[in-house]
Design a protein that fits this description.
By secondary structure, the protein is α/β, with parallel strands linked by helices. The protein has helices at 13-24, 31-40, 44-53, 61-72, 90-102, 117-125, 164-178, 180-188, 200-210, and strands at 2-7, 28-30, 81-84, 109-114, 127-129, 136-138, 191-195. The protein has one domain: 3-Layer(aba) Sandwich (Rossmann fold). The structure holds adenosine-5'-diphosphate (ADP) (2 copies) and zinc ion. Zinc ion (ZN) binds next to loops.
């Protein structure tokens, strides 16, 4: 199954993608995480992406699409993939469609994770992440003992772009550039809305239910 997880910053895309990836055994592809990995390794792509990410702006479409194209052409995506945080603009969605068409593939489902802006702010300001493996936690809702990553043992940190003024820009960018994708995919007929105000586990169950996968 080729899946897209759509939703505002902090909606829970990454968290749900991690759960779905384990259940469906298909890779979780987060463009944000690919950028952060490049920033950590100080690559040319990382330096470029950081100039946008640190301000809460979107990285240009051409750069982002190329990364996704390279990633979904890898062998582990043959049985499907979960896109988290991509596409984020109509132009990205159109380019993705062309790329998939060229290899006889398509997007099967788009899960739109619906959340209010106020909830998002609480989630992002208390989000903590692993600077080594990228695992995501929350100070209240998904804590880690002594703020140590359960997967790799590194000390967890706040993301540089999870600061109030950058969060505001990211939410604005979401409403302006990404939210129109809801209509875009609704027209294509493969969109489903899932609310995620409830706990992480319940939200994942809502998504599985919407995908017709409950009980797996
Ligand atoms: P996104 O990838 O959409 O930006 P994340 O998956 O990183 O969102 O989630 C944002 C923050 O909210 C993280 O700290 C995560 O642990 C927490 N979180 C995710 N889903 C829920 C939920 N259903 N209830 C409470 N907290 C959640
Ligand atoms: P969140 O969902 O919490 O906003 P992400 O990890 O998905 O975080 O993205 C972090 C940042 O990386 C975004 O604010 C943006 O600057 C950049 N980014 C990620 N994905 C894209 C994309 N598809 N197009 C443009 N920029 C992106
Ligand atoms: Zn880790």
């Amino acid at each position: 199954m080729n899946l897209i997880l759509l939703g505002a910053p902090g909606a829970g895309k990454g968290t749900q993608a991690t759960g779905l990836s384990a259940i469906l055994k298909i890779p979780h592809i987060s463009t944000g995480e690919i950028f952060r990995d490049n920033i950590r390794r100080n690559t040319e792509l990382g330096k470029l992406a950081d100039t946008y990410i640190s301000k809460g702006e979107l990285v240009p479409d051409e750069v982002t699409v190329q990364i996704v194209k390279d990633r979904i052409e890898q062998a582990d995506c043959e049985n499907g993939f979960i896109l988290d945080g991509f596409p984020r603009t109509i132009a990205q969605a159109e380019m993705l469609e062309e790329i998939l068409n060229a290899s006889g593939r398509k997007i099967d489902r788009v899960v739109n994770i619906v959340i209010d802006d106020e909830v998002v702010i609480n989630r992002l300001s208390k989000r903590i992440v692993c600077p080594v493996c990228g695992e995501t936690y929350h100070l209240e809702f998904n804590p880690a003992e002594d703020n140590i990553c359960k997967k790799c043992g590194a000390q967890l940190v706040h993301r540089e772009d999870d600061k109030p003024d950058v969060i505001r820009n990211r939410i604005a960018a979401y409403h302006k550039k990404t939210e129109p994708l809801v209509e875009f995919y609704r027209h294509k007929g493969n969109l489903m809305n899932v609310r995620s105000e409830n706990s992480i586990e319940e939200s994942l169950q809502n998504t599985l239910y919407a995908l017709g996968l409950k009980g797996i």
